[in-house]
Amino acid sequence: MTTDLLDLESLLTDEERAVRARVRALVDREIRPHIADWFERAVFPRELVPALAAEGLLGMHLTGYGCAGRSAVEYGIAMQELEAGDSGIRTFVSVQGSLAMTAIAKHGSEEQRQTWLPRMAAGEAIGCFALTEPDAGSDPAAMRTVARRDGHDWVLDGAKRWIGLASIADLAVVWAQTDEGVRGFLVETSSPGFTATPIEPKLSMRASIQCDIALDGVRVPESMRLPDAHGLRAPFECLGEARFGIAWGALGAGRDALEGALAYAGAREVFGRPLAGMQLTQARLAEMVLALQQAQLLALHLGRRKDAGLLRPHEISMGKLASVRAAIDVCREARALLGGNGVTLEHSAMRHAANLESVRTYEGTDEVHTLVIGQALTGLSAFRG
Length: 385
Fold this sequence. Notes:
The N and C termini lie far apart (51 Å). The longest helix is centred in the middle third of the chain and has 35 residues, at 233-267. The chain folds into three domains: 8-121, Acyl-CoA dehydrogenase/oxidase, N-terminal domain (Butyryl-Coa Dehydrogenase, subunit A, domain 1, Orthogonal Bundle); 127-224, Butyryl-CoA Dehydrogenase, subunit A, domain 2 (Beta Barrel); 233-378, Butyryl-CoA Dehydrogenase, subunit A, domain 3. The protein has a four-stranded antiparallel β-sheet with strand order 4-5-9-8, with helices on one face. Strands 3-6-7 form a three-stranded mixed β-sheet. The protein is built from eleven helices and eleven strands. The chain is an alpha+beta fold and 385 residues long. α4 (72-85) packs across α7.
């Protein structure tokens, strides 16, 4: 039984459908049979990385250096299918490709790109993106991590928090204040003074890794500074790539929850008839599919604009805000339709809803994206009073 009541399928190209089919098959084969166990035990499956790399999913929107060079829409479709498996798995691909690899591709030197991107695309090296700090989440301009020159090197001191993959990463893209403003540095995680500690226990994103990072006199050569990263515009460009992926990915979680609830309602009998035949059930399902398909149309529109080189930052904010809102509401309604059974890991809705609590917070909270949209409407910034 399809949930695509608007036939959005007809708006995709054959190649886009082929990408969807390949990633969906990977999720069905490698993720669905194990995700409940990974989530319950709070482990990220590192053994999955080679399969993700083999499918060309790491840095898939980048061209050259071993990257797949896929379109924005194809990238969005892939993120949607991965997040139908679990937000934590999609987060791995986003951190690796949209954040760490994009920082190197956009702002690194040719030597840095040649050294790191092929290894990262192949899953042989894992990267993380260290921007957020304990006291500087939504306001990265307030970061306290500093980098000072010492001869031909830089010395980094400070702390970062909620940094995905940091404890398993080989390379960290670290953003720090310098005498000339914010700059980006490539820090090998084996460097003396670099410590990454997983944040535990968590009630969300349990099949993923988020860490605290301590930087205590970490020495980085000038050759590891990102030469084209000047100011906060550089990390924000990377965040835009990740937010675009979220605008698609969250809808995968919502769709998976809806499909699970629909199947359950069709099989479950109450008062002598299928739960799906009840008016209130159908009203709930109708609202769920309406919200998801509206958000899907927006995501597809943003993808076409991105492929045409027309996408603007406030449009990405609209997509991220709309998709995550829709998806988390759908997952909560799906859990309710499942009744008491919905709180078990046999069903995906509550797991997805818990994960989406994190997704709505990272890469810009609801409030931040609301103010980005407000600024685009009024021409006035409301971020600082």
